[in-house]
Batch of 2 targets.
Target 1
Amino acid sequence: MPAGHDVQVAPSILAADFGNLAAAVGEVATATDWLHVDVMDGHFVPNITIGPPVVAALRRHSGAYFDCHLMISEPARYLRMFAEAGASSLTVHVEVGGTAELLAQMRDLGLGVGLACNPDTPFEAVEPFLADVDLVLAMTVFPGFGGQSFMPEVLPKIARLRAAIDGGGFRAAIEVDGGIDVTTAASVASAGARVLVAGSAVFGDPQPWGAVERIRSAAREAIAARASRM
Ligand code: DX5
Ligand code: ZN
């Protein structure tokens, strides 16, 4: 997790060339220690992407922090498989239910523990779990596909998460995912996000490593500007 209030950018390989994932991973390796891996099952979301074998294959090419976002209906069946494949953290969606048990299972597996919520899922759904997670992921698009437009209506929920985490003295980092680029990075960082997932804005750039640096700089500047106003 990023230390204190620093920012990390997690490139989403969903936007990379699936025929050449090892090369994509290499393109961002000097710019960030994080890699966001989008797992979709065709049930929780209308798309199918990556499973444990691909995570294991990527692990042979990378020592990065594999931030695995499980957009799947039955995560309990697969947590151990992702752990054994080389995931660093797993993030399950609060909408699938059974959250307390899933978080405990992830903790027992020795993984970073993440909890995600869709744009229309209220703050109150994740609030009871804030003390128990390393990462709370506020989706800024409806999950399923890359390249969608950022939803600014999620910003108030990010601010509420920031206030609740700081107020409670919790360690959870706030992550955002969907439509993040240099512009929206400033908005989400100002609202309180500290882990910024970016797919299209990174792998759609001819220099993915440069895009990571620019997104992180924009977020850091927004955090510094906000601090100087307070
Ligand atoms: C969407 C995925 C995202 C996606 C983001 O369901 O969870 O991680 O890759 O892509 P961009 O940055 O293109 O919106
Ligand atoms: Zn994601």
Note: The radius of gyration is 16 Å.
Target 2
Amino acid sequence: MEKTTSGKNVIADIWQEEKKDTNKAKNIATIVTEDEARMFLPDGELNRTLGGGLVQGSVVLIAGEPGIGKSTLFLQCALQWQGVKTLYVSGEESAHQIKMRAERVGMAINEELYLLTATDTNTIFQEIKKIRPQWVIIDSIQTLESPYIESAPGSVSQVRECAAELQKFAKQTGIPVCIIGHITKDGSIAGPKILEHMVDTVLQFEGDRHYAYRILRTLKNRFGSTSELGIYEMTSSGMRGISNPSEVLLTQHDEPLSGIAIAAAIEGLRPMMIEVQALATQSVYGTPQRTTNGFDLRRLQLLLAVLEKRGGFHFGMKDVFLNIAGGLKIEDPSIDLAIVCSLLSSYEDVALPSNICLVGEVGLSGEIRAVNRIEQRIAEAAKMGMDAIVIPKANAKGLETNKFNIDIRTANKVSDVYQSFFN
Ligand code: TYD
Ligand code: MG
């Protein structure tokens, strides 16, 4: 039978001086609050997702599918972080491979970065004791092995025990630990999911490996908001933070194409212009196909049903493909109107003007519902040089339209928009 020790004795002697009187109950009135001490990483997107830097003594889990760029991002960050002694523990790659990756991202060698290729937590803590780093990166939790647990690395009990040891270490020493963890497409495999409640912050890497763009989302944060989000591009020389996503997500077309619509979306707290591409073609098989990339399939089916029932468009006989450009996954329901317009544009084979963007959630009876943060969306559209924006009528109330340098049009129902574009 296994016994969980949660790092007993392993870490207890590491930083003996750090003994806190946490065993005594305190009156809440006597507790002094102060802002957490934060360390600012040399990566703006990462600082943003962490809620303004890395909190000392915190444990951050970075989860993502294999190959998405977790190791690259953290190695890159460690290389750039001058003046902070970092220990990068890798159980996946040899020191040689890591060095090659460091050369590939083309950054100067940071003399304060130490690499350790080990999987045994005892060895790791011993090295930590010797090197005394200010930041520890574990790549990845699935490769770690605690001597107190008999099961194989990557198993639920190993992952849990190793994480508990790291958590205890971080809390005792105040040294932040970033733990990388792999997940599969459905996020199921033992690992990150079972760790979520044990760590302070969970960041999730999303994106399609075949596309360059990646989103780093905050799923949980004890020290900040969970609506933050970072955007990266995987280049041939590492990950590059994208401070203005709209610029890269809008593709330039010489002439307007049918099936394309532009949405003013907000992901996390960030407004961004997104290109939606739809293709509706005559179905050759009995059951028409519906395929989406970056958008919820069931939501598409719902929107198609609305168009079929309320507008009389026979999508039931067509295959429908829908794509969000750039490989991003968009959850913001306000892109419904752009989705519907791209579908109609492909259906009618009439291109929409490329200088107009659309905002609105579409309801079951074809009504266009109000969305949040309308001003931010309009401002972003104006900033990106759009000439006009279509917004839900309900959002227009009390809106100071003349403070924006863009033509603001309102719509109440999908049929209003249809009339204006296709009639
Ligand atoms: P990696 O960081 O190893 O992913 P993870 O740790 O999440 O499994 O990145 C893997 C992919 O990124 C790999 O297919 C190669 C590619 N890559 C680049 O495109 N550019 C680069 O500079 C680097 C280092 C990797
Ligand atoms: Mg890796």
Note: The first strand starts at residue 38 and ends at 39.
